[in-house]
Automatic annotation (TrEMBL):
The RuvA-RuvB-RuvC complex processes Holliday junction (HJ) DNA during genetic recombination and DNA repair, while the RuvA-RuvB complex plays an important role in the rescue of blocked DNA replication forks via replication fork reversal (RFR). RuvA specifically binds to HJ cruciform DNA, conferring on it an open structure. The RuvB hexamer acts as an ATP-dependent pump, pulling dsDNA into and through the RuvAB complex. HJ branch migration allows RuvC to scan DNA until it finds its consensus sequence, where it cleaves and resolves the cruciform DNA. SUPFAM superfamilies: DNA helicase RuvA subunit, C-terminal domain, Nucleic acid-binding proteins, RuvA domain 2-like. This is Holliday junction branch migration complex subunit RuvA. Gene3D superfamilies: 5' to 3' exonuclease, C-terminal subdomain (1.10.150.20), DNA helicase RuvA subunit, C-terminal domain (1.10.8.10), Nucleic acid-binding proteins (2.40.50.140). It comes from the Bacteria. Homotetramer. Forms an RuvA(8)-RuvB(12)-Holliday junction (HJ) complex. HJ DNA is sandwiched between 2 RuvA tetramers; dsDNA enters through RuvA and exits via RuvB. An RuvB hexamer assembles on each DNA strand where it exits the tetramer. Each RuvB hexamer is contacted by two RuvA subunits (via domain III) on 2 adjacent RuvB subunits; this complex drives branch migration. In the full resolvosome a probable DNA-RuvA(4)-RuvB(12)-RuvC(2) complex forms which resolves the HJ. The keyword Flavoprotein does not apply. Residues 72-91, 107-126 form the Helix-hairpin-helix DNA-binding motif class domain. It comes from Nocardiopsis composta. One of its GO terms (biological process) is DNA repair. GO terms for cellular component: cytoplasm; Holliday junction helicase complex; Holliday junction resolvase complex. Has three domains with a flexible linker between the domains II and III and assumes an 'L' shape. Domain III is highly mobile and contacts RuvB. The gene is ruvA. The keyword Nucleotide-binding applies.
Length: 201
């Protein structure tokens, strides 16, 4: 298992980043919030999970080990593969997912594209004893640094289009969450708010 990568961020976009580790470019699929924290040209460390398939080896990257662990546990539920697990973490923090499962909040789970009512009920049933008890606030990923006001909007739009939304829908969602930005906007929180806006539309 590859538990983490540390290296220079060589590029990012389209839902993935390329990290130069000792001269080898490793492509890592990430949530929009994780991508927003990576800066091209800077050194970064991402927790990783390697998904092995018959015809592929895919690395998924996360802000921290807790997010990676939740990603792996989500896949123990029937019908939840790595792509859907990543989408769940794009919409909700690990703590928010713990709270949703513990409270049997299927409405929160159906806010994730690709999860219907029955799927949400199955996830609650199968993961109730696997994600652990919620312990803290679910406002954003642990350790997320505030982003400069000039940068939040293009990062939110890029994150949404990377998840498959059209540029027009992404721009509209960014407009909708703009009042929440404040002086020191948290890109991760704004991304999740924009995703909730699109899911309700």
């Amino acid at each position: 298992m590859i538990a983490f990568l540390t290296g220079r961020v060589a590029g990012r976009g389209g839902g993935s980043a390329v990290i130069d580790v000792g001269g080898v470019g490793m492509t890592v699929l990430c949530t929009p919030a994780t991508l927003a924290r990576l800066r091209v040209g800077e050194t970064a460390t991402v927790a990783t999970s390697l998904v092995v398939r018959e015809d592929s080896l895919t690395l998924y990257g996360f802000a921290d080990a807790d997010e990676r662990d939740v990603f792996e546990r989500l896949q123990t539920a029937s019908g939840v593969g790595p792509r859907l697990a990543l989408a769940m973490l794009a919409v909700h923090t690990p703590e928010a997912l713990r709270k949703a499962v513990a409270a049997e909040d299927t409405a929160a789970l159906t806010a994730v594209p690709g999860i219907g009512r029955k799927g949400a009920q199955r996830i609650v049933l199968e993961l109730r004893d696997k994600l652990g008890e919620p312990v803290g606030a679910a406002d954003g990923p642990a350790g997320a640094a505030p982003q400069a006001p000039a940068h939040w909007r293009p990062q939110v739009v890029a994150g949404l289009t990377g998840l498959g939304w059209s540029a027009r829908d992404a721009e509209a969602a960014a407009d909708a969450v703009a009042p929440q930005a404040g002086e020191e906007p948290d890109v991760a929180a704004l991304l999740r708010a924009a995703l909730r806006t699109l899911s309700r539309a």
